[in-house]
Amino acid sequence: MSFVGKKFPNLTVDAMNEMGDTFKVNVLEEAVNNKKKVVLFWYPKDFTFVCPTELHAFEAAKAEFEKRNCIVIGASCDTPEVHFAWLSTSKDNGGIEGVTYPILADSNRNLSSTLGILDITNEEYNEETGVVTVEGDNVTYRATYIIDEKGTVVHESINHMPLGRNVAEFLRLVDAYTHVQEKGEVCPANWEEGKDAMQANAKSTADYLSSH
Predict the structure, then answer these.
(1) Pair 155, 4: CB distance under 8 Å
(2) What is the DSSP letter of 9?
(3) pTM of the prediction?
(4) Do 63 and 24 contact (CB within 8 A), yes or no?
(5) What is the pLDDT of residues 112-156, one digit of tens each?
(6) Rounded-to-integer distance, Cα 75 and Cα 57, Å
(7) Is 73 exposed, middle or buried (CB count within 10 Å of its CB: 0-12, 13-18, 19+)?
(8) Which stretches does DSSP call E strand in 19-121?
(9) What are phi and psi for residue 129, nearest 5 degrees?
(10) Please, what is the end-to-end C-alpha distance for the chain in angstroms?
């Protein structure tokens, strides 16, 4: 089920920061209470391969997101303790030392299950034993959400495990949605900050297409 156009789930999850502090984060409340946009990105596992490249890329762009009144939050199903072990491992050794945004530890999978982003390919319930078994690692795909200041999901995307994200695209999407909010215009294909946008009517579309 897509959450685009809907409120982000009102769930509180454990999180870890670079100082080794475990605390609670409610993504919906982070957006609404702070009147900020949130970029929440999920990755499959700590101590793996594509994942650290993405966490470092989001850290490198963190200041750009902050300029746009936007919070960055990472997330996986690992525990807070595993997150901290990874945060304490140097980049040269495959770690994410230097990452400063919070990382959700959805180890009970309450939020990721609600979002429907776990890689479960088959689920079976044994009536005799009462045991549920699943196929797949039961970890998340590379899902990304942009949530606006009212807690509404305005973007949702999901990559398969081998496909790393382009962080610049999420900056572009934040820019585009901010333009919509501030100017009341809609953003055409490949729009970037400073380029022409359109009014949401047929004449404006025709004028745009005739000049581009």
Answers:
(1) yes
(2) P
(3) 0.95
(4) no
(5) 999 999 999 888 899 999 998 989 899 999 999 999 999 999 999
(6) 15
(7) buried
(8) 22-26, 37-42, 70-76, 103-105
(9) -100, -20
(10) 36
* pLDDT, tens digit (0-9, with 9 covering 90-100), for 122-132: 888 999 999 98
Cα–Cα distance between 187 and 193 in angstroms, integer? 10
- How far apart (Å, rounded) are the C-alpha atoms in residues 81 and 61? 25
What band does 201 get if pLDDT is binned at 50, 70 and 90?
very high
How far apart CA 207 and CA 13 sit, in angstroms, is: 48
| Average pLDDT value for the chain | 97
Residues 6+ apart with CB under 8 A from 157: 143, 144
Q: Is 69 helix (H, G, I), strand (E, B) or coil?
A: coil
Catalytic positions: 51
Q: Is 67 helix (H, G, I), strand (E, B) or coil?
A: helix
